[in-house]
């Protein structure tokens, strides 16, 4: 009887279910952290897309304003009969130069924004890969620890079963001997 109590205490202390439960809880916690990190990164990428679209929209509006200004100047040229044509041609050339410079500037800005977006996307992707790698390593380490604990539980369980069987056999033999004496 004392041996059974001792074995029960050992089985409770090194119970496999507790280890499995703790491991599952740790995995769930790490999975939740990973999901939160992925959600944060997805939100960042979404914000980047939104800002890129806003920048493109601003560039388009600026181009439209510039086109409108050029059109108004050209319309004004027809009503300016007394202004020298050399001055008008000079203004047109300056406006054309400004238009080309603005277009070149917008194009370079779009390229820079695209490069920056690609860089950020790759950084996010690398962060995700690193995060997942760390979590995978942590889970593998936890599994190894659990396996080590389970290795200690197996022999104790086997000894416990053997002792319980012996105890049962002794008890059965005692009952049989008592029954034979009674008869």
Task: Name its key features.
rod-shaped; mainly alpha; 183 residues; 3 helices
What is the strand and helix layout of this fold?
Layout (H helix, E strand, L loop, with lengths): L1 H12 L2 H63 L6 H98 L1
Question: Your description of this structure?
Answer:
There is one protein chain. The protein has one domain. The chain contains 3 helices and no strands. The chain has helices spanning 2-13, 16-78, 85-182. Helix 1 (2-13) runs antiparallel to helix 3 (85-182) and helix 2 runs antiparallel to helix 3 (85-182). The radius of gyration is 40 Å and the shape is rod-shaped. The two termini are 27 Å apart. The mean pLDDT is 78.
Please summarize what this structure is:
Helix content is 95%, strand content 0%. By secondary structure, the protein is an all-alpha fold. The chain has one domain (14-149).
List the secondary-structure elements in sequence, H or E.
HHH
Number of DSSP E strands: 0
Rounded radius of gyration (Å): 40 Å
The shape, in one word, is rod-shaped
In terms of structural class, how would the helical and strand content be classed? mainly alpha
Mean pLDDT: 78
Q: In total, how many domains does the architecture comprise?
A: 1
Our estimate of the beta-strand percent is under 5%
Q: What's the number of helices?
A: 3
How far the N terminus sits from the C terminus, by CA atoms, comes to: 27 Å
Biggest sheet details: none
User: Helix content range of the residues, please?
Assistant: over 70%
Weakly predicted, low-confidence segments: none
